[in-house]
């Protein structure tokens, strides 16, 4: 199978939008059970055309309009905005357009982990640093479900360096902006570094959500961070951690580390010394091991995206123009084994489609027609995840339509 | 269980003129009209959530006076806050009431402290004035995002103050009157929650359930245990719940009014009252860019040294060293630059020259120049945005890797001291500033920073970064004039040319839309 080359993108996109894009499921999602007909038609969609031409404030009266426009324009990227009080396409300068609904969204970008990952830099993601993203997924997903009681959560791999989370419960979509920002800040544990480089300071009364996050991290911390990221394998990494220690702790840890050679040995030695000295440490170091685990593995959220209800977010099922990879839903429960490299790219999908067509060419035409196109490709698995998400969502929507008084 | 208050809509949008349903101004009432006394039934409690709009006749004089009095109360709250007293503490409560007494606000004082004025009629009148003045100030402070924020913050403080004066039974009565109910967690529910919360909750304490959406502030600061969308709050937390819902109603109502302000244009008397009260805000709104001297961007490094407040200096240095700033920092610093008199062309030139050290020109043009033109009112809805005030800057959240915001708030003491090292201040001065910042007096810390940077200058209370800059320039100019009289030269250039700028209209927050460069991939 050939490698993706950005030059071929326009041609591939045209086939993709004609034959593979899951219009039906996609527009059903954005219609939310048609409880309110404006939900779909008042939604802002933004297309990015070749040459970074942005077309904002588009909206579509009905799903078929969306399908036609998509096939006509073949955008390199689709962003989904909010549902407004009027049709965004009718927005004029100075008109009052207010957000009436918006999924609660989260954006985690691997580049925000640059200070704690050693395997890659910038936009690159390998299976090692993906593990950090999978921890983030697990922590966030658990918090959203257990703490806030959300049920309809869609996790999406962006196609390159990020993951997105769409919380689609009705309450979530209708959150007031101050509540939205409260949820975001509740989940943002890491703040700006202090002078020692620490991004979190715990008190004796640690919040249950943080304790639970620590349990999640603790299970894989050595494997993912200490070993996988080799965080104490370099002098720079050691320095970063030593700076956070108060003098008497550092005096013990530094010589111990010099005698040892691997990241894991050094980490274990540090934890040992820390436990022994814990009683004598000042408050800023009392929870250092926990704080380090959080700093190295707690989700790093771009909360501006979550807070701003009018923020755009890249849509699932578009193609990343640089990598050619599909932006697809993944299952948060199996995120740890998800392989970002294994995500199909647009050229692979189209080859698979053609391959299938060739094979079944001899068979009857109805067989061909009955099978949905995406089922002939490796998109199939993520479509199943999406379909299941959609099924549950539509049941809830129907229930709330039947009984609008229910909260 | 569900906490819902109807949003009071002050105006009827379908009407062509200002329509105060019962406040009938067409019958000119110069003299005090008789109150249609209905006893205290209409205001059964000294505290109210102002859910119904005022429906009665009142004289303009009484209206004006009650507005002035309320405004004085709100301003006192702000001043006390600026002195660094923490809202809700015993000190804060005492100071506010003492200050109010100095202003001769007997009626309001009695009302706030929940003391009867002596007779039902007087109590009724006072509660009515409370009601009326609140509504009128809503109109006065609905105009801009900054004003709305100021008004809401003060009214919330006022409510908190008044809550402190209520007895336990008065509080329950209030909750009952406003139909606010919580369900109490029974023993079994409590046991489960204690276990789930890793010991965050204790068996000895009583807990109430409430949907998390109604306790946003407690959730934000992780002060409560939450599970499946329900927060477990204690008796003491109830005020937070009340405030959150009050804040939400208020903010909705103000936004609603702001879009309908134009209906006031038909009634000059009300317009006058409303505008008059709105001007008295002591939060600095910086609109002074017309006829401003143009600043040469080649001087920015020098100006950063001598006349920038710390927040801007930090971002300037950051930009010079890494040649990049993130979205909110670009916004905060960019608008400041506009405010000090950097023209759009120069601004583009300045950002381009820095950013292009690490990206190509094409990318810059695509990703950033739109936003810069936008902030100068040349794109989108073409509002000429005002530079951000300290209130705004202090209240924005700053996460890791971001350099905007107020350094006195975002930096911890060691980091702040480090940032102050290059300032040439004495150690004592540096620690004085860091102490103020640590106690949460960010603007006072900034003011102290100003006086240490400008020895011998009068004390200035900083409320706006551009104010800091202007004051600094004023002082340097006057020094320069003095020096020139003695025949020596100076580093600050005299004004070059005059630049005209439109008066800014709204806050940049609302319609910045997205920053294309930050659209996540």
Task: Please describe what this structure looks like.
The complex is a heterodimer of chains A (407) and B (521). Chain A has 17 helices and nine strands. Chain A has 407 residues and is an alpha+beta fold. In chain A, strands 1, 2, 3, 4 and 8 form a five-stranded antiparallel sheet that branches. In chain A, α1 packs across α15 and α10 (247-259) packs antiparallel against α11 (263-277). Chain A starts with 8 loop residues before the first helix and ends in a 5-residue tail after the last helix. Chain B is mainly alpha-helical and 521 residues long. Helices cover 51% and strands 3% of the residues of chain B. The longest helix of chain B is centred in the first third of the chain and has 23 residues, at 60-82. The two termini of chain B are 42 Å apart. Mean pLDDT of chain B is 78; it is low at 1-37, 280-284 and 488-521. The interface between A and B is large, with 62 and 50 residues. Chain A: InterPro entries: DNA_primase_S (IPR002755), DNA_primase_ssu_euk/arc (IPR014052). Chain A: It holds the Pfam family DNA_primase_S.
Order of helices and strands of chain A: HHHEEHEEEHEEHHHHHHHHHEEHHH
Distance between the termini of chain B: 42 Å
Radius of gyration of chain B: 26 Å
Q: What is the helix tally of chain A?
A: 17
Helix content percent band of chain A: 40-55%
Give the helix/strand class of chain B.
Answer: mainly alpha
What is the share of helical residues of chain B?
40-55%
The run of helices and strands of chain B is HHHHHHEHEHEEHHEHHHHHHHHHHHHE
- Describe the sheet with the most strands of chain B: 4 strands, antiparallel
Low-pLDDT stretches of chain A = none
How many strands of chain A?
A: 9
CATH class of the largest domain in chain A: Alpha Beta
Average pLDDT of chain B, to the nearest integer?
78
Q: How many independent structural domains of chain B? A: 3
Organism (chain A): Apolygus lucorum
Keywords (chain A): DNA replication, DNA-directed RNA polymerase, Metal-binding, Nucleotidyltransferase, Primosome, Transcription, Transferase, Zinc
GO molecular function (chain A): DNA-directed RNA polymerase activity; metal ion binding
Family (chain A): Belongs to the eukaryotic-type primase small subunit family.
